[in-house]
């Protein structure tokens, strides 16, 4: 499954650049391996960094958004299941992280 960069930052797809920056700072601070001893902190930190990398660059974000729309149209049921699974896994593992 492809990473959902918006979910990694806890944002909606229409988030502004200011929202993206704010969410990145909060999530990066929370998941930084020097501050968070959870076993998946380093992985989550890397996901947050990658999400910010893509979503803060206009061209990369446009390509990412276009790909997301295309995937939703290709197989909406599978995409909905993947989104739900990722969302529920995050809630069950870290309810305060949302």
Automatic annotation (TrEMBL):
What lineage does UniProt assign to this protein's organism? Answer: Bacteria, Pseudomonadati, Pseudomonadota, Betaproteobacteria, Burkholderiales
Which positions, given as ranges, span the membrane? none
Q: Which UniProt keywords apply?
A: Chaperone
Q: Which region is the signal sequence?
A: none
Residue ranges of domain J in the record: 4-68
Q: Which GO terms describe its cellular component?
A: cytoplasm
Protein's name in the database: DnaJ-class molecular chaperone
Q: Which organism is it from?
A: Acidovorax delafieldii
Q: Which CDD domains match?
A: DnaJ
Q: Name one GO molecular function term.
A: unfolded protein binding
The GO annotation for biological process reads:
protein refolding
The record, for InterPro entries, names: DnaJ_domain (IPR001623), DnaJ_domain_CS (IPR018253), J_dom_sf (IPR036869)
